[in-house]
Amino acid sequence: MLEARGVSKFFPGVKALDNVSVSFNSGQVHALLGENGAGKSTFIKIIAGVYKPDRGKILFNNQIYEVDSPLEALQKGIYTVYQEPQVIPQATVAENMMLNNLPRKGRMGIVDWRKVNEVAGKYLEAVGLDVSPTTRVIKLTPAQRHLMQVAKALLFQSKVLLLDEPTASLPEQEVEQLFKLINKLKQEGVLIIFVTHILEEVFEICDRVSIFRDGKCVRTDDIENLSKQEIIKLMIGREEHLESLGTLKVEKDRKVLEVRNLTRENKVYNVSFELFKGEILGFYGLVGSGRTELARIIIGDDRYDKGEILVNGKKAKINSVYDALSRYKIGYITEDRRRDGLLLNDTVMTNITITVWDKICNKFRIIPKTREEEVAKLQVEDLDIKITSLNQRVNTLSGGNQQKVNVAKWLAARCDILIFDEPTTGIDVGAREYFVKLIWKLAREGKSIILISSDMAEIIRLAERILVFSNKRVIGEIDNSSKDYKEISQKIAKYLFVQAN
Fold first, then answer.
1. What are the residue boundaries of the ABC transporter domain, all occurrences included (predicted)?
2. Sequence-distant (≥ 6) Cβ neighbours of residue 495 within 8 angstroms
3. Is this structure's pTM higher than 0.90?
4. What's the CATH class of domain 241-329+415-501?
5. Cys-Cys crosslink for 42: which of 16, 20, 90, 393, Cβ 3.0 to 4.6 Å?
């Protein structure tokens, strides 16, 4: 149905795609896998009409496929749903869906709004999205926005649906809903090209896999012919290493953060815990269990109704993220780097130094460029951030390098307490291992870390203690000094099972 033959794409100083050949069949879910920078996104954007290949060609239904824009791709039956859906937030659901083909009536060509809403409603129903066509998109959840985009693909009778990290920000129940819809579309003969970093999803939903590395497609095969270990080896060119990281020297006599009976209505209830110098404290629980809500209260992004926060033994008054940083040296690496953590259209240098502008400016409140460059360059080198220059815009970086910049700004500010919220979500296997080792290294150097993660293996490998969250409460605390996955996972499961009953 769709075939790439010898496709190559070049950017200044970078060969993004190198002679890629791969074929896709109708009625299948075909995964594209690879580390950040492997070429997956570039390949998707060529099919979507964002880029043109510099060499090679693409065939669609045995005919040469050449488009100059995503609109042309859509008109030919190919539609892309990106990780961050491209929408007009203040417009309605129906307007977003029908924008490219608004039905009109009468000699004056007035938009037939009744029909706009009627047609949109039909396709919203088809994907199981129970919202009114007149609802403004800004009111939709991330999952609903994804389903709206899929409904739009059906509206245009798309034969190829490209899904770029569609589950990255979705809770488990909505992932299941999306997978049911994908299976339905597959039965109707639609080709779904599925980009993800979550290998469990690949084995659950995909029929076929293409693995990219260093701009090349190194293997395409049926999923039944591949194991998880084989895929990882093909992606990163080596075996996945899950060796022990060792033991941290936690200073139990130095309590750097203490939370006492903290409550925020509908967010968290009666939470208490302690964090010691050099410790990694894990917050484990499902999305919505209260972990992130608690973190945002600690950093001053949300207020609390009762309770207290102490930093280094003294009661803290944190009314803003700036307070947390400037007065208490607390940094927060957000789970959604693209929305909350980075200025995507700004430079690497600006993103790294924004937390220290008040410290490096001169007496005239002017920031010396040489000083700013010095701070940024040090972080780029320390974190091995792959950039062409300090003035490169962050939105042009791979996901892993964006996350490094997201971390760098807090390291530049020399925070003593760091809260990592789902630090490896949406990044590849190799980059995940990098951040695991970085978090460990920072703790070994004396930083105190709160690690929020839904990845049980990750949190067991890193945390010294684990707080288990459910229903906006801490329901258990586990000593994880053994780092025994089977033992600790059973303890976590026991807490969650008891809570469920």
1. 2-239, 248-496
2. 468, 470, 475, 476, 478
3. no
4. alpha beta
5. 16
